[in-house]
Every structure is written in structure tokens, then in C-alpha cells.
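Data availability excerpt. The first of two example chains:
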Amino acid sequence: MNGEANVMARAPRRADRTVGTGEAAAVLAEGLYGVLSTVGPDGLPYGVPLSYIVRDDAVYFHCATVGRKLEHLDARPEVSFCVVGKVRTLPRQFATEYESVIVAGRASRVDGEEKRQALVGILEKYSPEFMSEGEKYLAAKFDVVTVVRIDIEAISGKARR
């Protein structure tokens, strides 16, 4: 991670809501789902929600072996990934308490032990009480799943609490 570099390379409009790199990284690690944003070979944007893990300054997710997401990543590996953490609406104030983080980075497919470790990490995050069954499932499906790593190049976070 390159520290507190602003993902969009410009100052945030509400700088008073900016959180530090450590807090942004915590929101990212604790989130359940994020939205991956890509640009395809045709120049059209695409955003897709997905489950993920964070490990070693990278975001990992899994997907099928073919599809629009991979076509976009093959054409342009530069991505944005956004996670919204805790949210609470404040109806009387016409406002919302929230925390969010955006990362920018480059995506690439991984294989071998790195792929296996990422899949085990996903199991640990989303199905910790079913590890034995999950590892059998992974062994059977290992060759028909793709794992992608996003190397985090920039991270920024905002919060209103």
C-alpha cells in the first residue's frame, strides 16, 4: 500500500471526513462485500459486487473462469474497489453515518499455492464453521475457479460518525 494517496488523485470535497490509512485498511478488512469497478476493451465501465478477503496489502476474490469481469481485467487491469462499512441513517437530520473505503490497484490472476491460500482465506471469512467441508469443496472445484489479486496501490477512506 502506498499510504494515504487519494485514489482519485484529487482532494476530497469533505476533507473533514477523511480517515487515515490504518482506519481505511480496517474498514476494508472488516467489510463483507465490495464493488469492483473496471473498464472494458470497449471503454464501457462495469461495476460488480463481490465477496473478498484482504491479505498482504492485496484484495483477493474468486470468480468463474470466463466472463465479463475477466474480459475487462484482461483488457485493462487497473481497477477500483469500494467497500461501505457500518451505515446508520439519521432521518431527522436528513443524513447518514457511514464509513467507506476506496482502493485503486492492478488486478492479476493467481495460481498454485497463492490461489489455494486465497480460497482458504475466503472460506475462513465466510464459512469458518464449515472448514472441513469447505476444503473438500475447494479441492473438487479448484480447477474451475479463477482467483484474482488486486495489488493495492492507493487507499482512501471517509467516515461520518
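And the second chain:
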Amino acid sequence: MGSIQCLIIPADLDVLVQTMELEQGDIKTMQGIVDGHFQVLELEAQKASMFVNEEGKNIGLKMNQRATMLLWLSDSVWRFQDVVAGNVFIIGPPDDEGDSTSVPQELVDLLFSTEKYKGEVTTLSDEDSWSSNNLEFTDYWDAAHSVLELASRWQLVREARVVAA
């Protein structure tokens, strides 16, 4: 087993999102990050896996706004239906042998190396093309909030995402 890179998204908005090296299969460290036993939510759009505290909402952990937005952007079935509570970490999908892989570099680059962001949506009448307005943001989470707010008002929105502007 080797080490992989993970992305940690704290529930506390005052604590920055960061990357960290994690030993594959280090259950104790994984449980330490999420403060308990975890469950895995697949982030289809990001080709990644989000590890969350499986009892987070039941035991009163603080809502994780950033992880919730990322989940809602990953697949519209989650949007406005459920929230994530507590600290989370994200890694890549399992490889062919079922071993953990590093968080996709594309996601790390988007979050940490992008200067400007914009939100894009597909609509029920045109599910194959992404559209955006002229709004640009210097913060990924501000762009995510904006595009999700649009999706809450415009019922024709099918999928939403944040990309480099």
C-alpha cells in the first residue's frame, strides 16, 4: 500500500479546504478526519468519492456547506434533498483492484489553481449543452453558491457545475 492525496473539506467555514497525504487503507486516520465511522458518497461528476460521518446529522455535527454544495453539484438527485454534516475528505474512485486512488488532479487544480470561476447549467429542454451567464467569481464556493441559487429558482435546470471562467 502507498499514500494517496485526499482533499479535506472542514465543516467550519473558517478552516481552509486543504489537501493531505493519506495512507491507503488507514481506517483510523479516515475515521479521525470525519470524527467517527464513515460512509462513502460517490461524486459522479467529479469522478471522486466523498467520505462523510455516517451518523453526522443524527449526532448533531455541524452542516458542511461546502461539501453539501459539492455533492449537490455532483448529481442533481442530491440537490436540495440532503445535506452533509461534519468534516469530510475526498479521494479518487477505487482502481481495478478496489484500492483507493488519489483525489482527481482536475478537482485539485479547479479548487486551488483557478483564478476565475463561472457556473454553468443544462436545462430539461437542452440536456446536452452547458450554458452560463456573464457572472465570474474569484472563489469556487461563491460560484457554487450562485449557480445552485439559480437552480433553486429556475425549475428547468437539470444539472449545474462550476468551471474555470
